[in-house]
What does this fold into?
Amino acid sequence: MFVGDALTVWYAGLNKPWYLVPLWFFIMVGILYYLMSGVILYRQLRSFKESKFRKIALGLILVMLAGNEMWNYLFFGLESIFLGFISLIPFSIVVGLLAFVLRKVDRLSYRILLPYLFWLGYDLLWAYGLYMRNM
It folds into this structure.
């Protein structure tokens, strides 16, 4: 929704780092992100074990989903490499906290989230490289 033509016009014209993965890979990560988020959210909603960690996990999942949309708006909607990069830092912290909580409350959801944490490491590196090349 926030991308519009920014992907094909603005982003296409940026100077990209050499370690950029192909666009189809970003698309696959995006699809897997929403599938992963849906599975984790579903598992937390259907859990009948009441605990403060489960409630925290639900809140963090919702913050993570909103944070991802906020990133799309900042990066593509405002066409800001800087805001896109900077916003990945608190977003990564939220996902890290979610992983920490899920490890306590739902090991399968934790394992599902873990590859995304590794992706965020690359994402931070990519966003920083993109920012440095286009200052």
Summary: DSSP finds four helices and no strands in the chain. Helices lie at 23-46, 52-77, 81-105, 107-133. Residues 107-133 form the longest helix (27 residues). The chain has a mean pLDDT of 93.
